[in-house]
């Protein structure tokens, strides 16, 4: 018995069906970690992109250094740093939230480059027209810039969402009980790893396929040219 569920190992099909309710508990953790990390990445990535575009070097240069550090170091190293090193300096986070922050920061660095590419692809005349109309900086971004870059960056951001989902198993290294962690525990308990790992692989395949299909649908709905300044 595991988590109140009976595990039937008499046949592969019975084994798979009996462990499915257990794995669904881990699936909930996996999806929550992905969604929270994705929200962090979207927001922090945009902040990184805007700060990096600042004309003030004391702002843009350190931001660029942070982005490059996050992009060029392994996610596992960052995860261990947040979970094992920061508590030595008084900053302690639960394992789940540590994992969400680590995922969010790593992908925020990637997404900042996506945002930057979208901003630089915006025609210079749009910036000049908005400035000529004496629009505030906030108004320029909310009404002119962001609506036009969203169609350009949606495919890349969607790819990072799928990649983040596939990276969530790394959270098991800091004791987060997500999907793969539970599959390994079932294997340890039953000494049968093929079925649990195969079921987890199938679940990830279904999830990523659904996400990819949804993103393609969103791309078709969003106007290709965005909202032009008039």
TrEMBL record:
GO terms for molecular function: transmembrane transporter activity. It is found in: Cell inner membrane; Cell membrane. Keywords: Amino-acid transport, Cell membrane, Membrane, Transmembrane, Transmembrane helix, Transport. The chain crosses the membrane at residues 20-51, 193-215. The keyword Oxidoreductase does not apply. One of its GO terms (biological process) is amino acid transport. It is a multi-pass membrane protein. Pfam families: BPD_transp_1 (PF00528). GO terms for cellular component: ATP-binding cassette (ABC) transporter complex. Its main location: membrane. InterPro entries: AA_ABC_transptr_permease_3TM, ArtM/GltK/GlnP/TcyL/YhdX-like, Ectoine_EhuD, MetI-like, MetI-like_sf. Residues 27-212 form the ABC transmembrane type-1 domain. NCBIfam families: ectoine_ehuD, HEQRo_perm_3TM. Belongs to the binding-protein-dependent transport system permease family. HisMQ subfamily. This is Polar amino acid transport system permease protein. It comes from Pseudorhizobium flavum.
